[in-house]
Amino acid sequence: MNLKKNLALVAALAMSATVLAGCTKTEGNTPADTTAAGGDEPATTDAAAPEDTGDQFTVMSWNDEVPVKWGETVYTAAKPLPDGVTYNPVVFGVGGGEATPYFQNYMESGDDLDIFALEADFALTFLNSSYAGSLADIGISEDEFANAYDYTMAIGTVDGVLKAVSMQSCPGVYAYRTDLADQYLGVKSPEEMQAKVKDWDTYLATAAEVKEASGGKCTMSVALGGIWQVFSAARTQDWVVDNKFVVTDEVKEFLELSKTLADNGYIDTNAQTWDASWYGRGIDGTTMGMFTCAWGLEGCILIDAAGGVDGPSYGLWNITTGPAGWYWGGTWLAVSSTTDNPNLAADFIRYFCADTETMTHFARETGTFVNNKEAVKNIVAEGGYKNPLLGGQDSYAFFAPAADAVPAMNIGEYDGTVKSALNPVMVDYATGKYASIDDAVKAFTDNVQAALPDLAW
Amino acid sequence: MMASAANRRIRKLSYAKYGYMFILPFFLVYFIFSLYPLIYTFVVSTFRATGTAVDAEMLFVGVENFKDLLFVESPVRKQFFQAIGNTLILWICNFIPQIALSLLLAVWFTDNRLHVPGKGFFKVVMYMPNIITAASVATLFLSLFGETQYNPVNQLLLSWGWVQEPITFIQTYQIKRGIVSFILAWMWFGNTMVMLMASIMGINPSLFEAAQIDGANSAQVFAHITVPSIRPMLVYVGITSMIGGLQMFDIPYLFNKGTDIDEYTRTIAIYIFERYSGATRDYGRSAAASIILFVITGILGAIVFYINSDKDELAEKKRRRKEAKKLKGGSGF
Q: Which of A75, A326, A382, B62 would be A172's cystine partner, CB 3.0–4.6 Å?
């Protein structure tokens, strides 16, 4: 009997210990590794920022692009870390949309963290928290990013404080098949094509032309998801104003357009983004083009729609801006408020996001469309990048004005959630499940309310 | 009196403490990783985050979260009840064909008169789907049943000329639910079959012989000997499948494009996941939904257990208890 009591006591103690551990969690915001002084020398003599004391330089992201491919292979190779400091890449191997809980757990654990990467959809979840530090605190001023594209700076600025900067710029494009454009529209150059898709009315007229010329075989684009990105970037107002959800005009315009496109067979609504059905039409020539962006050319999307390097439509593509300037995704770098290597962190951010020389080098090596107008100019002056996928079209020369055309809008903290709420509705409305646009908007609003019940409804 | 004194001495000599020492590691792990999170879930369910930032403050709101999910008429409640409905539909649609098929196969494979050849081979092949990771299976099926002429199933149907236009397997929610149920049944029927076979082989063969001598046909043998004898196993299979079914997550979640879950395959577990992950950071309602799921599981488990338990035995127990009471009452005289 006594043993049972003891057992219960042990169990109760173990439980209360964990309860207490749980309670102290919120205090754990102190900089990590303050005790690890082991032979560290300050990396620079920069007087503005505090000294580097950490023996680890930690860069965290959801995938290996920033911490490994860029940080480890490019940065540490070009600039060896000071003695006694080891490079510590933290990679979770998940999609950007799933990163939040991983990041949160890591940050709450208080482990060493200097730099972390963010995507626009969830950037504010972290930039609004105490875990993100101001770039001014590590001695980086806003002026250093004079060459960055405006929209990337707008996204990284929270309440007037610059907290994150982007290493790439990701202007969106309408990619089209040059052979089909010639055959159905008599179009010979990207400029002529742009005139055919310069706004949505012209786009629809062109779609009708293509449909007729091809005998209904050829659509204008594939999957609705890509088109929403264009409208989303054109929004001038946040989804939530004074804690109230506002359906902006873009939603209705977009839904109407989706319906028109679907009703007339200008788009394949059955196609799923990121699936064989998205790429198939590009391979067999039953679509004129598709909406993609700077990272969606030889990295993914368009290369798949071309069927790979040996694919049937490889080299037959060209890109134009499309009906509106827009961007799709991108990666922002933020600095942790608990960083113990502020000078290294500042140098890392400057290397990828501010320094024209290193960014030019980086662009030359990797083909990335960097977020620096001067670097882009340098590359274009050197002869640009004759993209074989685009039949030799200079994608760099093209992206430069496209990135300038992206409207500088702020992102809101609910963008990702709202997008998820809209996705099922847009396909259902386009395929005729809702009787009227008001029903569709109501369904969309209900989805948002179910997802965000704590707004004022 | 003497007996109880002897008992006491024996108890003093008991080696039970060693037993407790051996089970101690399990209980420690259980308390830390199961019981404490369970209790903590109750605590969290009474709080609500005040914003979307990762370190947003949590406010105590009492039973508000439960009220929102269960009683206040709003899209929140609608979505939650839809999730409960989806879970039940998906579970029933996969469990009934699954148990029927595994029972049939189990009876065939164990029947002495049928002598099915290659039993071992079939057993392995049928168990195989269970070995594959659910994630791979869901992704594979999603790609197979894509809705354009570039996805395999539609490609086949089109080339055979069975259909003129690609079938929208995923947008048509009945078909989508059907595919999800099919995947679940296909993955689990082998497992259920093996368990039922083990149970059937444990039945005394003389019962079957006796039935044969008495001239019972296979249907009668099945209904009056096999099923009653494997009832405990049926209860076990039913309850485990139901608990697993209520927590159904991986297949319906991954049988969706990206993280956008449609309203026809959102199960309770997916609902709970959606609430706390992503930008909503709604830990409170997530925990409240978990607790509601816990209660539903408890109730359904009790019902299944009651339906399947031996009624005669229950009646016997009741009778005995009554008698004991009567005897006690009698001695009071």
A: A326
Cα A443 to Cα A439: distance, rounded to the nearest angstrom: 6
Q: With a cut of 60, say whether residue A33 has pLDDT above it.
A: no
Number of domains in chain B: 1
Q: Which two tokens stand for residue B210?
A: 């006796």
* Residues sharing a CB contact under 8 Å with residue B246, sequence separation 6 or more, in sequence order: B87, B91, B268, B269, B293, B296, B297, B300
pTM (whole model) above 0.90: no
Domain presence at residue B41: no
Query: Residue B261 maps to which CATH number?
Result: 1.10.3720.10
CATH 3.40.190.10 fits A56-169+329-381, yes or no: yes
Whether pLDDT at B279 is above 70: no
Which pLDDT does position A24 carry in this prediction? 37
Domain-located, residue B300: yes
User: Has residue B19 been placed in a domain?
Assistant: no
Q: Which residues lie below 8 Å from residue A258, measured CB to CB, with a gap of 6+?
A: A224, A227, A267, A269, A426, A429, A430
* CATH code of the region A172-327+385-451: 3.40.190.10
- B279 contacts in chain A (CB < 8 Å): 100, 121-122, 125, 413-414, 416-417
What does the block give as tokens for A296? 């969606």
Average pLDDT, chain A: 80
Inside any domain, residue B289: yes
User: Distance between CA atoms of A57 and A345, rounded to whole angstroms?
Assistant: 8
Q: Has the ipTM of the complex gone over 0.90?
A: no
Quick check: A340 and A31 in contact, CB under 8 A? yes
Contacts of B150 in chain A (CB under 8 A): 276-277, 279-281
Mutate which of A125, A221, A279, A423 to test chain B, going by most B C-beta atoms within 10 A? A125
Sign of CA dihedral A263, A267, A273, A277: positive
Phi, psi values for residue A175, rounded to 5°: -95, 135
- Which amino acid is located at A413 in the chain? E
- State both tokens at A57: 């330089």
Domain that includes residue B317, residue range:
76-325
Distance CA A334, CA A133 (A): 7
Strand order in the sheet with A172-177: A289-293, A172-177, A317-320
- Cα–Cα distance, A429 to A434 (Å, whole number): 5
What average pLDDT does range B115-130 have in this prediction?
86
DSSP state of B263: T
Give the tens place of pLDDT for each residue, A123-163. 888 888 889 999 888 888 888 888 888 888 888 888 888 99
| Pairing outcome for strands A267-268 and A221-222 | parallel
Which of B224, B229, B272, B214 minimizes the C-alpha distance to B87? B272
Question: What is each CA distance from A341 to A55, A68, A105, A351, B60, in whole angstroms?
Answer: 8, 19, 21, 15, 38
Four-residue CA torsion sign, A437, A439, A445, A448? negative
For chain A, the structural domain boundaries read: 56-169+329-381, 172-327+385-451
Cβ separation B52–A416 shorter than 8 A: no
Residue with tokens 């996204």: A155
Query: Are residues B257 and A273, on separate chains, in Cβ contact within 8 Å?
Result: yes
Is the pLDDT at B136 greater than 70, yes or no? Answer: yes
**Mutate: best of B72, B175, B280, partner A, most A CBs <10 A:** B280
pLDDT over 60 (residue A13): no
CATH topology agreement for domains A56-169+329-381 and A172-327+385-451? yes
